[in-house]
Amino acid sequence: MCAVMKFNQCLLQDIAGTNNDNTVWKWHIQDPASQRLTWNKPPKSVLVIKKIRDASLLQPFKELCMFLTEVKNMIVYVEKKVLEDPAISGDENFGAITKKFCTFREDLDDISNCVDFIICLGGDGTLLYASSLFQESVPPVMAFHLGSLGFLTPFKFDSYQSQVNQIIEGNAAIVLRSRLKVRVLKENWEKKARVDEKGILTNGDSESSRKSMYYQVLNEVVLDRGPSSYLSNVDLFLDGHLITTVQADGVIVSTPTGSTAYAVAAGASMIHPNVPAIMITPICPHSLSFRPIVVPAGVELKIMLSRDARNTAWVSFDGRKRQEICHGDSITITTSCFPVPSICFRDPVNDWFESLAQCLHWNVRKKQNYLSSEDEEF
């Protein structure tokens, strides 16, 4: 990235002092509001993410791109398939602006070192998609609420010019949304024939038939039973130790950001994104005592089909890349070293509780009537 962002990622700082050969530990917990976005030099490039084929976003997208290009003189990156929309490609007035854009294609072009920050237009899915484009460091993300829910999109588009100017000037609050680093090991991906030292043709060794795939996940990894009528039966390992066998419709492994998505619908608690944790939530478990649990962010989870599982399972990553998991396959999940720096409208705490109130109507109920002194007598 041309412009470098600064923010403190340390969650706990320990200070050791010596007194008569006795070490005293003091723990300092960082204030979430202390994470700030500043620029070493003004940002010059921006990636604009827009939901494909959404007519309601056309006008905001055009206004924003014209403002960034014509007024702020920024280099604008746009996904190639966005410009292929007939409503955009057929607009002659907007055509002169699109010629100045830099385009890219998902899974083909690497723009990780080209973009200073990201602007998302849409709902929460747009932010999840933006996260998936970056397998390592993610530029700061400014998300405008133009979708259906908007839990992760705190900015309103009505005053976009002043808000974008504020971000370009720097000194904005940041929440570091942790991601999950996921490795899927396919045991029997393909069988390759080979000739051994004696010239005998074989079916291929274990290494040639295995393939690993890696994903960066912002919300959750979901393992479910797929089309089968049987319960999923999978073993769950924590740092190499078998902790339980999940007999359920499936299991959700989520980040704190994902705790307010599928996990909360499955009965999990809601965790603030600044809490370093991983949540494990069963989906309709066949056990009354199987409750969701929260484990430290530093652990390694591993999920495999149980030996006596009746059927395969299916896994998806933030609702994408869905694939079948067979016997011998494994899914390894750890906390990623590359979080998503999400720009706050106010600060991490106020934005989060505002989203709980506006999107989930958290703790909304009809209030009791005021009790007067006359009522107390009865």
Automatic annotation (TrEMBL):
What name does this protein carry? NAD(+) kinase
Recorded family membership? Belongs to the NAD kinase family.
How would you classify this enzyme at the top EC level? transferase
Q: Which Pfam families match?
A: NAD_kinase, NAD_kinase_C
What is the source species?
A: Scophthalmus maximus (Turbot)
GO MF term list: NAD+ kinase activity
Q: Which UniProt keywords apply?
A: Kinase, NAD, NADP, Transferase
Query: What does the record give as EC number?
Result: 2.7.1.23
Stored Gene3D superfamilies:
Probable inorganic polyphosphate/atp-NAD kinase, domain 1, Probable inorganic polyphosphate/atp-NAD kinase, domain 2
A GO BP term, please? Answer: NADP+ biosynthetic process
